[in-house]
Fold this sequence. Notes:
Layout: H1 2-9, H2 18-21, E1 24-26, H3 30-48, H4 52-57, E2 60-66, H5 68-71, H6 73-76, H7 78-86, H8 96-104, E3 109-114, E4 117-122, E5 126-128, E6 140-146, E7 152-162, E8 165-168, H9 186-196, H10 200-212, H11 216-239, H12 254-262, H13 267-287, E9 291-293, H14 303-313, H15 319-339, H16 344-347, H17 353-367, H18 372-384, H19 402-421, H20 432-445, H21 458-461
Parallel strand pairs: 2-5
Antiparallel strand pairs: 1-9, 2-6, 3-4, 6-7, 7-8
Helix pairs in contact: 3-7, 7-8, 10-15, 11-13, 11-14, 12-13, 13-14, 13-19, 14-17, 14-19, 15-17, 17-18, 17-19, 18-19, 18-20
Amino acid sequence: MSELKEILRNRPPVETAIFDFFKVGPGPSSSHTIGPMKAGNDFYNKISALPDDLISKAAEIEVTLLGSLSATGVGHGTDSAVLAGIIGNIPEKCPGSVLQDIKKNPEKKYEIKLKNKSITVGLDCIKFGPVKHDSPYNNTMLITLLDANRNNLFEVEYYSVGGGFIQWKGWKEEERGKPVHPYGTMKELHMRLQETGLTMHELILENEMSITGLTRPQICEKLDELMDVMYDSVKRGLNNVGKLPGHLGVWRKAQAILEQYKTNNFEADRLMGKINSYAFAVSEENASGGVIVTAPTCGAAGVIPALLYAMRNDMSLGDRALREGLLASAAVGMLCKHNAGIAGAEVGCQGEIGVASSMAAAMLAHARGYDASVVENAAEIALEHHLGLTCDPVGGYVQIPCIERNAMGAIKAYNAVLLATAEKNTQHKVSLDAAIMAMNEIGRNMNIKFKETSAGGLAVSVVEC
Length: 465
Ligand code: SF4
């Protein structure tokens, strides 16, 4: 306990911006699709700015995927994503069809311009390297510009650190504004709330204005745009039927689940069934490479939209309450990222579905008007009951267990709110900070075969059909 207190006392403040955290992009994986696409695009920008004498010698680009990116990169479309980035795509403007076209035409070459020079790149530039390596992050990729004799002209070692965030060797955090109400733990967030008299969503909004320089109306507009992408992903998923990509032969079920439950005689079954169908809808879109919002990751992208869609359509909560709830959910998600991790490859699925469920619980509790201690307790309960959850996607596809797991995460979030609102705050024993620290410790000690490598758990026990 004293060690935990010491760790928590020394935490630097959270400086993540909401719109870095919630990103729009194509699925199926934030760390294996969105991050690699950003790395590919960043590399293209870096080599475009190299001196003329280096550019004149450029002949080819080689990408080596390491760790989990190599182990499950094919199922996650990592090779297509990094290539899409190199040829000029960025996740927020890249429809899923770009990745599908690359995949369908594996021999195709793409010309890229480096000032006056043109070179060609294709899927054959992407190599799958060792799963075990010495780089500081599991999800590592080396991108190299070579001359005609395969001499190295320029190289960057990139890390896809979860949620679509990337770093590289020598990376330094971008200089920008500091949060006006700094907090590094939930405990500190409570202190800031008490000092200022602000509500949680107001405090997060003021921090966002101070970090990004955006105005309040601009932030609200961007939040509304994010929520629209989430609603669209639910609607698209409910309209689409058929089999998902890949050789597992998994059928889309969102529409059938909705049909089954929307007229059910039992009111509770109707609501649970609808939330399940919404979560399936987004997760199936994600598995098909459709555009979703990382919340906090692609693999877990169905949890928050499922509850948000239900809050809007089945619980009659207004847009303002939803926006405020989403801000509270961001506070929880950013604390989880800051003090543990949100990538399956770093801390297992507890960091993806567990964090998404915790965020969704905070969102619902806050939108329903409960105070910050109830919001914390709801978030804590949802996270606590995902601790230890491994990441073991069958065949390397974000389908089994991921799609059902999104529905389970959304339902658990709902139940966490029921539990948190039915107890006396003072009787709640576990803090959100303690649950996050536990997730961190479990994640760091989790065997690598349970961290998005498809080398253990369900990924090896399921006999693929
Ligand atoms: S098992 Fe969980 S962490 Fe792993 S890919 Fe699926 S949703 Fe993401």
